[in-house]
């Protein structure tokens, strides 16, 4: 069983995906973390975020590894745990430029398909239902108002202990800019798959979203 969850930034994808994966013993794969790791690698090598060839070489050198530790997905590169670093505002501000590079997408999509393998998997991102797992049995497109997504992002940063001086308005503007870039890039832009079910999470609790998606999975089981 493959479950694809797509949608704009901070719509609650990873929060609900993690809970459902735990409840159903599915493998959870956070594809955004992989593009964020590419961006950390580019920065660590002092590469321009548009330097596709340089970044691809640096990824080959450092590697990107997803490890499950105590049920949490951790990201490692060059032997270092970069799970917190990938969430910093600097990386969030530049990840869309790196993720729009066709060669980077090709490499990450191949890795994502390999990780999905033949196990039960729940994967979240922007192009899972359209490109990475086009045959997924369940496809969900999560949306929420820009303000509520900014509030969630601020809370998420606080909970992870990542300091930010940004106001909720600034975060909202950053999120809107990232969504625009992700929706307008040439290669597999953020788009709802024709067969995806759209859920607006603005006025729903986490439990309610989990329940709705679990019902869809149940129907296909
Ligand atoms: O999901 P998250 O907000 O962590 O994703 C970070 C960025 O990675 C997105 O803004 C987008 O540029 C990129 N991304 C992507 N395709 C995916 C997942 C994430 O392009 N499947």
From TrEMBL:
It is found in: Cytoplasm. ATP binds at residues 7-15. Its main location: cytoplasm. It comes from the Bacteria. Residues 3-218 form the Cytidylate kinase domain. Its EC number is 2.7.4.25. CDD domains: CMPK. One of its GO terms (molecular function) is kinase activity. Pfam families: Cytidylate_kin. HAMAP family: Cytidyl_kinase_type1. Belongs to the cytidylate kinase family. Type 1 subfamily. This is Cytidylate kinase. It comes from Lactobacillus intestinalis DSM 6629.
């Amino acid at each position: 069983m493959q479950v694809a969850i797509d949608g704009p930034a901070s719509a609650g994808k990873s929060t609900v995906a993690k809970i459902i994966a735990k409840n159903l013993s599915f493998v959870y794969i956070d594809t955004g973390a992989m593009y964020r790791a590419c961006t950390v690698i580019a920065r660590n090598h002092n590469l321009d975020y548009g330097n596709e060839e340089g970044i691809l070489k640096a990824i080959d050198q450092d590697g990107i590894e997803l490890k499950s530790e105590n049920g949490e997905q951790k990201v490692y590169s060059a032997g270092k745990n970069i799970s917190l670093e990938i969430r910093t505002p600097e990386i969030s501000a530049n990840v869309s430029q790196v993720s729009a590079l066709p060669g980077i997408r090709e490499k990450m999509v191949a890795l994502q398909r390999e990780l999905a393998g033949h196990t039960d998997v729940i994967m979240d991102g922007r192009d899972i239902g359209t490109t990475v797992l086009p045959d997924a049995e369940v496809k969900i497109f999560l949306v929420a108002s820009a303000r509520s997504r900014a509030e969630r992002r601020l809370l998420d940063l606080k909970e992870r202990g990542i300091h930010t001086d940004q106001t909720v308005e600034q975060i909202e503007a950053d999120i809107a800019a990232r969504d625009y870039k992700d929706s307008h890039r040439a290669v597999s832009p953020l788009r709802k798959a024709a067969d995806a079910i759209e859920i607006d999470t603005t006025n729903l609790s986490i439990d309610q979203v989990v329940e709705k998606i679990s019902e869809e999975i149940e129907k296909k089981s």
